[in-house]
Prior knowledge:
The chain is α+β, with helices and mostly antiparallel strands.
Amino acid sequence: MTELPRRAVSRTARLAALPLGYxxxxxxxxxxxxxxAPAEAVLSEVQQRTAEQLFRTLGDxxxxxxxxxxxxxxxxxxxxxxxxxxxxxxxxxxxxxxxxMSSTTVHAVLGQELGRGWRKQLVEFDDDPAAAASxxxxxxxxxxxGREVAIKIQYPGAGEALMADLRQLSRVARTVGGLVPGxxxxxxIAELQDRVAEELDYRLEAxxxxxxxxxxxxxxxxxxxxxxxxTDKILVSEWIESKSSLARLIAExxxxxxxxxxxxxxxxxxxxxxxxxxxxxxxxxxNFRVLPTTDGSLDGLGVVDFGAVARLPExxxxxxxxxxxxxxxxxxxxxxxxxxxxxxxxxPNIRIDPDELRAYLGPFTEPAAVERFKFSRDxxxxxxxxxxxxxxxxxTLALKLNLPPSYLLIHRVWVGCIGVLxxxxxxxxxxxxxxxxLPGFAEGPEG
Length: 447
């Protein structure tokens, strides 16, 4: 029976083995080098086998380990190609799938949550999961009223395993970080620790999903499934028929598909705050489903998984985001610096030169500065490498900036969104989209 591993010692040992396994393979590779094997072939084999171990361990453990893997899979576009390539396929798989629970375990959870007569409500139930994620997996079934439904079932012990994983990953962050060079793992884990409680609460998730489903009921571009039933550990929603996800388009989509669905993706993320007062805060591609059409034309997106949602106090994105972005495009970095101080991004005792700020932030405004912008891995990678290179102007500025708590999930969505668009290599009218949807951007510096 496949169950979520719960014993702390066992889970800790498997996580700690990741950097040890990498070190061992590197030593074996060095031995092969001494025996005459080409350096490039040895390095490629070491990275490929490490990627396979990373996926297998993170996926099998599920919980916080797999959640970290999903977050990393969004950001792989930042890494140099020779580093990213061996990990891309393995990490992308984390966006759509994970090893499933056994049917015995699934039935036990259904009985605990819906009662012994659960088959009277779920008159049909497919034991093979349709999808799996970090804290639960999804099955297809039919509700007693005839509707096709998706049944999201939380893994037994997911809560304690999730927190144990994140605590352990925090302890070994430095060595685990060596498996994915260029990514600072520890802040990522700290953010995940702050948000897991909400994602474990399926009733809270159901409330957010109901609000989105009601608002997007008749939307021609976006479909959000209605909630049918929920308990603490089970969430039953209408089934969305889908032929693929954005993760598959990243791997094999045409340029037309990448542009079309990339635009749908961005418009939905921006529309949530404006129309619902909520920001869907889990932008990884597996949550966005490509809806089928009878004639093969391009259509809208289905959106699933509302466990991570930012509840915005003003029921909209902060106007300062759009206003400061527009001011930066006018090259007035004195005003940008003052605005960042007002919002808490620069603490009162921190001194920053506006020219340093221009060198750091200027290239990030490129997508908004032209009528159409082509996102790409090359562009994303160049930005990441630029701010990591101490020889570049403004490269140390990140150490002086502060991320206010109110911007935590907004930052996560923005970075994740840009990462996905770069993986899609989508070409979009991004400036017009910002003018339509980002408060403060269209008004200009006087707004």
